[in-house]
Amino acid sequence: MPIKIPVQLPAYNVLSNENIFVMNIERAETQDIRPLKIAILNLMPIKIQAENQLLRYLSNTPIQVEITLIQTKTYTSQNTPIEHLEKFYNYFEEVKDKKFDGLIITGAPVETMEFEDVSYWNELKEIMEWSKVNVFSTLHICWGAQAALYYHYNINKKPLEKKIFGVFSHEVNKINEDLTRGLDDIFYAPHSRYTTTLKKDINKVKELEILAESEEAGVFIIATKDKRQIFITGHLEYDRDTLKNEYLRDYNKGIKIEIPKNYFPKDDVKEIPTVRWRGSANIVFSNWLNYCVYQNTPFKLENIK
Q1: What pLDDT score does 28 carry?
Q2: In which residues is substrate bound (predicted)?
Q3: How far is Cα 12 from Cα 21, in angstroms, rounded to an integer?
Q4: Going by C-beta distance under 8 Å and a sequence separation of 6 or more, which residues neighbour residue 189?
Q5: Which of 49, 103, 166, 181 is at a distance of 20 to 30 A from 303, taking alpha carbons?
């Protein structure tokens, strides 16, 4: 099914060349159906890359998806052309009077900082509070998940002795859950973080359930029982070369960094990385859009509360 985005957005050509059904706005407006309205609060520094990654998986949906990109006003990305931000992004104040079927809050490279020290923390808190009554289901990724668990449930992240970095195996805890429906008993996902959220802290909150976890990487998919708030601690959306680029970036800066686990064949950085998570990513994003959003969100957006 199609994803509805402007023709000028870089993702349009990227996804079209991958044979993914992308629909321009003009064609979408001739179809007599209501698209899912999904907002993306993009906190990643290289925003175009993050757009391409997320939109690739949001295209695998049962209905049109209309995307609204949001950036913070209290911090402007230094790694994305200002022309791109001005053309395609909204500030929160421009959309706060609207309602959305879904919201994605991405990760951000600020995990070693205290939440309160992040320049846009107050703005993010306002958005997370707003999402409770203006969004039907919110999906938080990596640091976005940690921030939301801290804000909503006072669960703080914990520093690690060394970075969780690589592609790790995970197990599904609840096979009858909509969000994990179709996943293999053992599936793979990338992680790249210096902090973690402890299972024992999550288990103290009755509203939360751990749907999938990893022996090496820890808890992975956490959700409220009504699936209005979902937290994913890794990066199912990553491309083949994302971990490679992160490794080379840090290595070239002289940062002590291990080769990503279970990623390069024979741990040889000259080899093409092996993708083991694409199927799982398609399943999780599709399940979120279908079961957590499309099947349950009110037809009239104003009825979301």
Answers
A1: 46
A2: 163, 192, 249
A3: 10
A4: 167, 168, 170, 214, 217, 220, 234, 235, 236, 277, 280, 281
A5: 181
Q: Tokens 């698209």 appear where?
A: 35
Q: What's the average model confidence in pLDDT over 117-132?
A: 98
Is 193 assigned a ligand-binding role in the annotation?
Answer: no
CA–CA–CA angle 5, 109, 282 (5° rounding): 45
In tens, the pLDDT along 16-61 reads 665 455 555 554 454 446 789 999 999 999 999 999 999 999 987 6
Cα separation, 149 vs 93, in Å, equals 24
Cβ–Cβ < 8 Å for 47, 85:
yes
List residues with catalytic annotation: 142, 235, 237
Computed over its alpha carbons, how large is the radius of gyration of the chain?
A: 18
Mean pLDDT of 157-179: 94
Q: Which two tokens stand for residue 4?
A: 């509805």
Q: Which residues pair with 158 in a beta bridge?
A: 196
Averaged pLDDT for residues 51-76: 89
Look at 176-180, 268-272, 284-288 and tell me which has the smallest mean pLDDT: 176-180
Three-state SS at 102? strand
Token pair for residue 245? Answer: 């680029």
From the list 219, 224, 212, 206, the residue with the least C-alpha distance to 296 is: 224
- Beta-strand runs (E) in 181-269: 186-196, 208-214, 218-224, 229-232
The answer to whether the annotation marks 192 as part of a ligand binding site is yes
Element (H, E) at 89: strand 89-91
Task: Give the three-state DSSP class for 74.
Answer: coil
pLDDT for 22? 54
Residue 234 has pLDDT above 80, yes or no: yes
The pLDDT > 90 percentage for the chain reads 80
- Is 206 marked as binding a ligand? no
Answer for the pair 67, 9: CB distance below 8 angstroms, yes or no.
no
